[in-house]
Amino acid sequence: MISHARQFSFTFTAGLLLASAVAACSGTTSSTLPGSPQASAGRWQTRADAGKGPHSIEYFAGITGGSTPRGISVGRRGMWFTQPGANQIGVINAQGVVTELTAPTNGVNNIVQGSDGNMWFTQSGADAIGRMTPKGKVTLFSTGNEAYGPFDITAGSDGNLWFTFRSPSTDAIGRITTAGAVTLFTSGLTPGDVGVHDIAEGPDGNVWFTETFNNRIASCTPSGIITEYSNGITSGAGLTDITAGPDGNLWFTEYSANQVGRITTGGTVTEFSNGISPGAEPGGIAQARGYLWFTELNASNVGRLSTSGQITEYAIPAQAASDIAPNGNLSSLWITDYTGNGIVKVTP
User: Fold this and answer.
1) Which of 46, 48, 104, 153 has the CA that lies 20 to 30 A from 166?
2) DSSP states along 51-103
3) pLDDT for 202 beyond 50
4) Looking at residue 289, which CATH number applies to its domain?
């Protein structure tokens, strides 16, 4: 799942997070749908390759100003995205119509659909995991009183939700059942704050995650056993997002090294940089239609990467392309524009 790459740079370089030290108590709150969602206006991106590249359009209408869209995931009714600047979660359908729902506390980060059909999201400012029904009813589950709290979240092969959990004392990988039972795992994880960041389900049934401070990729079994890998990763790579690829491997972005990496489930790493513009800053990554697709925050591009390592960049109408996720049938990719306050639809 994807984080906001610019926020990542500020957060992990300066050691500042949006999280607060106050834990949220578990509880239930409901939000009502707006009476008349607005049809969203957008702008088409002109392509420089005579029509050979993907179509892209950005939607703005119906999105609260300054809401800083960040994480995005497919769910019922469309693509769901977090809005930490407004303490909201938005839903955008295929036609660009946006509906906004209230998130009860600050620090809403990333979001994913669970096996129960609900949307699950991290609330670092509340040290909680939230569950939102398709109609917008929210329940929060506390993960404990820590200074940083949960960040990214993914659906696991075991039907549970898994999340990265940062702490000033020691990080952990968390598991939450659809009933709300939370367990934190540390066995095999380097002690201390290693900067656990993004997390994704792997093709081997484990979850895989990035460790920014520790410069490692790691896996965690459904029983909570963690294995870390560092060989082949550029020093100070700025490990950011990670996703399962169409080739049975995991693929991840290296924000500081300006690269994309591939790791096999056995731990063999290969890095790719040819075709990425200098200083592009790869951020979010996802797969669709047999390719890997990644955002470039500092270049306003989306990159397409074949499983053999060939990279092609395409301009998109985004000021700060952050997270990226495919729709349900993989026919389009959706990108949050953090500073532009919009949602970009890319049709390959």
Assistant:
1) 104
2) T-S-EEEEE-TTSPTT-----EEEETTEEEEEETTTTEEEEE-TT--EEEEE-
3) yes
4) 2.130.10.10
**Antiparallel, parallel or unpaired: β 72-75 and 291-296:** unpaired
Q: How many CA atoms lie within 13 A of 10 on its CB side?
A: 8
3-state secondary structure of 195: coil
Find all residues with CB under 8 Å of 36, minimum gap 6, and list them: none
Q: Which residue has the tokens 């703005």?
A: 60
- Per-residue pLDDT, averaged over 157-176, amounts to 95
Cα–Cα distance measured from residue 58 to residue 337, given in angstroms and rounded to the nearest whole number: 9
Residue 32 counted as domain residue? no
Alpha-carbon distance 308 to 286, whole Å? Answer: 16
What sign does the CA torsion over 35, 86, 141, 183 have?
A: positive
Is the pLDDT at 240 greater than 70, yes or no? yes
Please name the residue that has the structure tokens 């993914």: 154
Q: Which residues contact 179 (CB under 8 A, 6 or more apart)?
A: none
Model confidence band, residue 105 (pLDDT cutoffs 50, 70, 90): confident
Whether 12 has a pLDDT exceeding 80, the answer reads no
Domain that residue 61 falls in: 5-14+52-174+195-347
Total domains in the fold of the chain: 1
Q: What is the mean pLDDT of residues 112-139?
A: 94
With bands split at pLDDT 50, 70 and 90, how would you rate the model's confidence at 43?
low
DSSP labels, 144-173: -S-SSEEEEEEE-TTSSEEEEEE-SS--EE
The alpha-helical segments, DSSP class H, found in the chain are 5-14
Judge whether 204 lies within some domain.
yes
How many whole angstroms separate alpha carbon 55 and alpha carbon 1? 23
CA distance 339 to 281: 15
In a domain, 22, yes or no: no
CB 306 within 8 A of CB 15: no
Rounded mean pLDDT of the chain? 87
